[in-house]
Amino acid sequence: MLQQLPHPDRQYGPLQIVHDFRFTALNLPDQYAWLEEASLDEKRAHIRGRLERLAGRGFAGVVLNVAFKSYLDDEQAWLLLVWIVDTAQSLGLRIWIYDEQYYPSGSAGGVTLRDHPELEARGLVCVNIDTDTLAAPVRVASPCGHSSLVYAYAVPRADDILDFAGQIDLSRFSDAGGGLCWHCPGGSWRVYCFFTRTLFEGTYLCRALRAPRRNISVCDARAVKRFLDVTFDPYRRWLGERLGGAVEAVFTDEPSLLAFSPYPEGFDPQKRHSKLPTLSIHEKPNLDIPLYPYIHWPDGLEAAFAARAGYALADCLPKLFAGGPDAQQEKLTYLDAINQLFDHAYNLQYKEKLAPLRLAYSGHMLAEEAFDRHPILFGDILRNLGRMDIPGCDLLYSDPDKLRWSTACKLASSAAHLYQRKHVMIEASNMSDRDQDLTLKRLTCAMAIEFAHGVDLITSYYGEQVLADADYAAFTTYVARLASLFDGGTHQTQALVYYPFRQIAAHCPITQDQPHTGRHQEIGNSLTQLSQKLWQKQIDFDYINDEKLLECQIESGRLITPGGEQPRWLLFPEIDAIDAPIAAWLRQVTAAGITVAFCGPEREITGLPDCQSLIFMGDAVPFASQDLILDPPRQDILVLHKQIGSQARYLLVNTGSDGWTGQVSIPAGSGRLVQADILTGDLTDTNGDYRQGRIVAECVLPGFHACVLLFEPQAD
Fold first, then answer.
1. Any domain includes 596
2. For 541-589, what is each residue's pLDDT tens digit?
3. What's the CATH number where 679 sits?
4. For the segment 504-515, what is each residue's pLDDT rounded down to a tens digit?
5. Domain range spanning residue 563?
């Protein structure tokens, strides 16, 4: 491996996202002369030229799809795709398939819902009114764009205090127009009426940058099955044995529940169609449809809720929509049910569809870094990513100052380690900071940061004309060197950081008008800040969820994760409660002498009232790295450590513009220490000193620069 470092195997390089070779990434400077009326020979010449250029620059492969124009329906487009795949394979390029006509996945460019409108995502909408009256009729009309009345309840009200135990079911009082007509006996009531509507208006679908259109419910097994069938059956028919051969994997893009997203000030649907990629379904929202609070309402939700709770979801809808502490259990049960439906309908069906095609399942979720939104978007992100054969993430910026503390890559790599996946993918781009010059130095630093956070496979959404050819070659070689050096092995984590999904979910508003205490955001921010403090001390870590925490083993006073890592510390963000199964397990952990620490001041943790050995860290992390140590310390240097065979490999990334010179020490006995310059491929034997069980060596890291230390212990 070290002998090959100056000229690494191109298969370790990045993959370029090319789609159909007609579409170019939004707001990037790529402009290609692509005539709609060009001959087939002209189209092929254009595509071959770009494939040859990508191969010549050192790209490992491409992420592509059948033509966006007349998506999935054009026989000539399929014939051209077959030729593209064969041509790419002849050039030694790896091939992935992008599963949609632009994000988010599920609509298949509108084909999924064609003749099947019943599969569109639906929400249950709440319209409530207060009434203080003598006996008189109370009427609530079905709003524009909504269904007839589904459920209705009247809840006694006194001084704005609601008596849910005394609520009355009014669902049978539907009038001829689909609304409510109830002869109120008098008194003070809050009347809750529930209708359904499709979830397009008031979601980010209607403001998608490229293709605003309706989508399926990703929690509906029938809808997801149709999406998978209409998408992959044609790929199987046209590409045949190329799937699982030349074609390795599938890239799914931001499947999620459709959370409320308000229209921005001055929103004009007519202006959202200026940069459409192709002829497809382009829909404009009906601004006359009112945006009342809603929850997701897929088929199977009521049964899934009842199976968990032991009572009907309908009867607790008023309490659920009112929110507040009294509704916490109902909210958690709802979120558990809806997120399990998503997992089974989308993740598991996707894997089942791809398995006989011998294709790996990859892609990324939406808004990975927004911990406080995970419960309402998709659920436990570690579990969702762990379902993938190649967990992935998506970052739209390449500025080292932004990337340095990004949690997206660490979430994906943690999922890979916990669920024992071999690789971690990122869709890398500079879409949100394209105002900055994308120099080779900044780009290679961005790649090094992403690798330091655990990524080892780059799918590039950078334009094909933003660097000079020589810089592209340097970029792809840089990525290939990193990927080859850190392929395989076991990540050496010093800490496990608890992913507090249920604690966030307990406080997360599930509709836009619920009481907003901000506690879910505080917990999310605490997790982000804890991550940053660990990185600043060169303490590498993995996030861990409830599922995998309970699968850890305790041996000789050490934790062992399902992926074989042996962390020293188990750290929690500033939370105040632990569920009973985790609390029982933590008692075993602390009894074994393993350090368990919580952010924030000393306090009682609900569920652990009798646990005396907890550490409360306040606002600081009182631990120092027991692995790689920098002297002098430097907060903006990131470190990754993997054990590959007998060799310890460390990646050091200076994410700042100022250089650093000092000493690096690692726990080691006698052996050979080699420093690798990733940019040049140069290898240098380092004469280190041995001091108290550590090897100490001089190191120089210029700004935005990375190097690798490789230690091979002396053979016995």
1. yes
2. 999 999 999 999 999 889 999 999 999 999 999 999 999 999 999 999 9
3. 2.60.40.1180
4. 999 999 987 776
5. 495-616
Q: How confident is the model at residue 35 (pLDDT cuts 50, 70, 90)?
A: low
Q: What is the rounded CA–CA span in Å between residue 21 and residue 361?
A: 23
**Domain C-terminal end among 458, 491, 524:** 491
Tokens at 78, concatenated: 């399929």
| Residue 413 DSSP code | H
- For 241-270, the pLDDT digits (tens) are 999 999 999 999 999 999 888 888 888 877
pLDDT attached to residue 269: 79
Residue 616, strand partner residues: 598
- 192 belongs to a structural domain: yes
Residues near 41 by beta carbon (within 8 Å), at least 6 away in sequence: none
Q: For residue 382, what are its two tokens?
A: 């570690």
Burial (Cβ within 10 Å: 0-12, 13-18, ≥19) of residue 15: buried
Say how far residue 702 (Cα) sits from the centre of its chain.
32
Q: Three-state DSSP class for 188?
A: strand
Percent of the chain exceeding pLDDT 90 equals 81
Q: Are residues 475 and 432 in the same domain?
A: yes
Map tokens 């669920």 to a residue.
419
Tell me which residue of 198, 201, 231 sits closest to 217, measured CA to CA. Answer: 198
What's 428's domain CATH number?
Answer: 3.20.20.80
Question: What is the separation of C-alpha 346 from the centre of its chain, rounded to a whole number of angstroms?
Answer: 14
* 450 touches 403 (CB < 8 A): yes
Cα R_g (the chain), whole angstroms = 28
Structure tokens given for 52: 């040859």
Q: What distance in Å separates the CA atoms of residue 190 and residue 163, rounded to the nearest whole number?
A: 10
